[in-house]
Amino acid sequence: MTQGMLFDTGEPSGPVDQRPQVLAPGACLIRGVARAQAPALLDAIRDIIRQAPLRQMTTPGGGRMSVGMSGCGVRAWISDAAGYRYEARDPLTGKDWPPMPGILRELAHECASRAGYDGFCPDSCLINRYRPGDRMGLHQDRDERRDVPIVSVSLGVSAVFLWGTPVRSDGVRRLVLNNGDVVVWGGLSRLAWHGVAPLPQAHHPLSGEIRYNLTFRVTA
Ligand SMILES: O=C(O)CCC(=O)C(=O)O
Ligand SMILES: [Fe+2]
């Protein structure tokens, strides 16, 4: 049971088959594609969150999200009592969001291209930080351009990604996403419902008990 596992993250330790696996029309999972770069990506994330600290946003309904969020790029996603939207400035610091580092932009471009979406140029990256027990409820990503895909990168502790279809009543599949796995959804799957199950208590050598997720979007 321990063979092929790194600590208790569920992450396979051997080489992974990086060929895109089709999840649905327009959507695919590319296992391990960001794994070699994970240490550098985590360094870039830590640099961004020094400038734009992680915060738990409030929802229009008055709730508070468990996931800690930050962002980089020309605009980043925020939520507060007034609703969900993209803002060019971080409301917490009053400053522009940190620029998107080349290593992030290039990874997103490369993953989109492997998924069949050429020319993906994200202007926004949302950073999600999950501690044990943190979760993200089922939702659709509706606040940005819908004619381009979402590219989502998982780093650190493994999580269960809940993956549905654009029809909520279709229900969800449970996919374990490990460090370095990338999911791309666009086209007929662009408005697929998705979420993240509560993060298990686990340990990853690069991130301790934390999972980070990056989602790259085009907002304008
Ligand atoms: O953390 C994830 O894997 C998904 C994040 C997500 O759906 C979002 O930020 O909109
Ligand atoms: Fe989402």
TrEMBL record:
Pfam families: 2OG-FeII_Oxy_2. This is DNA oxidative demethylase AlkB. InterPro entries: Alkb (IPR004574), AlkB-like (IPR027450), AlkB-like_sf (IPR037151), Oxoglu/Fe-dep_dioxygenase_dom (IPR005123). The keyword ATP-binding does not apply. Residues 121-220 form the Fe2OG dioxygenase domain. It comes from the Bacteria. The keyword Metal-binding applies. It comes from Novacetimonas pomaceti. Its cofactor is Fe(2+). Keywords: Dioxygenase, Iron, Metal-binding, Oxidoreductase. Residues 1-20 are annotated as: Disordered. PANTHER family: ALKYLATED DNA REPAIR PROTEIN ALKB-RELATED, NUCLEIC ACID DIOXYGENASE ALKBH1.
